Amino acid sequence: MVRSNHFSREAILRDLLKILGEMTSDWEGGFAGAIGPETRLAADLALESIHVVQLVVAIERHFQRQDLPFQQLFVPGDRSVDDLRVSDLVDFLYTHLNTPSSGRTDTRSI
């Protein structure tokens, strides 16, 4: 996706659903329902830590941003998050994609 000055929640959700759909389409025993805003990454999609890393990389590539502070999403404060809904990820991306890039190329800390 080409960089834009503003990403809408709807566009982010659409792109994120496409990324998640591509990730899970060839999984054995994959998610039976449709992925939506209330879908939980761990409980519903059975994403494990390696899948979360793959998801982060796919998001960074898609949005051409490697400076997104995913550690704030997955490890707020001093404790890690057990699960997130797709809508939580959309909210995070909406906030951080609509702020200027810091110029840093890699801040992954998951």
Which properties best describe this structure?
globular; 44% helix; 110 residues; 0% strand; disordered C terminus; mainly alpha; Non-ribosomal Peptide Synthetase Peptidyl Carrier Protein, Chain A
Explain the layout of strands and helices:
Layout: H1 9-24, H2 49-63, H3 70-74, H4 86-97
Short description:
By secondary structure, this protein is an all-alpha fold. It has helices at 9-24, 49-63, 70-74, 86-97.
Overview of the molecule:
- The two termini are 24 Å apart.
- The chain is an all-alpha fold and 110 residues long.
- The protein has helices spanning 9-24, 49-63, 70-74, 86-97.
- The chain is globular, with a radius of gyration of 14 Å.
- The model is unreliable at 104-110 (pLDDT under 50).
- The relative contact order is 0.21.
- The protein has one domain (9-97): Non-ribosomal Peptide Synthetase Peptidyl Carrier Protein, Chain A (Orthogonal Bundle).
Binned strand content: under 5%
Oligomer: single chain
CA radius of gyration is 14 Å
State the share of residues found in helices, binned by percent: 40-55%
Structural class by SSE content = mainly alpha
Distance between the termini: 24 Å
Q: Main β-sheet, in a few words?
A: none
Query: What top-tier CATH class fits best?
Result: Mainly Alpha
Q: What is the helix/strand order?
A: HHHH
Supply the number of helical segments: 4
Low-confidence stretches: 104-110
What is the number of E strands? 0
* Average residue pLDDT: 86
